[in-house]
């Protein structure tokens, strides 16, 4: 019935992964609170933020997880990945080493997930195009080779931040509905 459909609820866990200082915490704070922090320290306290979207008239909640800086020690635990239906794999377009790490993050994600994960490759800090070390083409072709969506973002000036999260969340919805 209509009533049963209205009662239907969706709650999806989405994780953000990638090397230290690529902008993971700022992507989340920009998306969830429209905030940016120029001197953000390792995330303290906040494990995740919940955002609610309307998709095809359904209320969809995304529980978006941020690391607490453990990635510096290559010690992101399996608990972090557990139950994730979506992932943003982030690198910094101005630091090639963070792009070179992407395959390792994808492997870690594969190792820990037991379901289809909607994955988006995110080249963050596109406002730093003047000191770019990774071209858009390189990002695109890695994403194509690995079967990921691809987008460049800036948590600083907000470019594509909402779009990046919402493409992943909509893809999860499509996968499960
Ligand atoms: P995390 O370690 O991946 O969570 O990265 P943070 O979100 O803590 O960001 C690391 C540093 O990069 C901070 O100094 C941020 O201000 C800066 N940063 C994050 N996103 C951007 C961005 O889109 N553009 C620029 N220019 N700096 C950014
Ligand atoms: Mg962080």
TrEMBL record:
Q: Keywords in alphabetical order, please.
A: GTP-binding, Lipoprotein, Membrane, Nucleotide-binding, Prenylation
| Compartments, record wording | Endomembrane system
What is the recorded name of this protein? Ras-related protein RABA5c
A GO cellular component annotation in the UniProt record: endomembrane system
Task: Provide a Gene Ontology MF annotation, just one.
Answer: GTP binding
By sequence similarity, the record places it as follows:
Belongs to the small GTPase superfamily. Rab family.
Which stretch of the intact protein is present? 3 to 179 of 217
How does the protein associate with the membrane?
A: Lipid-anchor
């Amino acid at each position: 019935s209509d009533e049963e459909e209205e009662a239907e609820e969706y709650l999806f866990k989405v994780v953000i992964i990638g090397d230290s200082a690529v902008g993971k915490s700022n992507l989340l704070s920009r998306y969830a609170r429209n905030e940016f922090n120029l001197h953000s320290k390792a995330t303290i306290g906040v494990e995740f933020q919940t955002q609610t979207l309307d998709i095809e008239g359904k209320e969809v909640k995304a529980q978006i997880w941020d690391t607490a800086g453990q990635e510096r020690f290559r010690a992101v635990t399996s608990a972090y990945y557990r139950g994730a239906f979506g992932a943003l794999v982030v690198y910094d377009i101005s630091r090639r080493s963070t792009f070179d790490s992407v395959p390792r993050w994808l492997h870690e994600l594969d190792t820990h997930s037991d379901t289809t994960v909607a994955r988006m490759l995110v080249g963050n800090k596109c406002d730093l195009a003047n000191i770019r070390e990774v071209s858009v083409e390189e990002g695109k072709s890695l994403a194509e080779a690995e079967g990921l969506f691809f987008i460049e973002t800036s948590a600083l000036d907000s470019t594509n931040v909402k779009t990046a999260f919402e493409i992943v969340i909509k893809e999860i919805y499509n996968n499960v509905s």
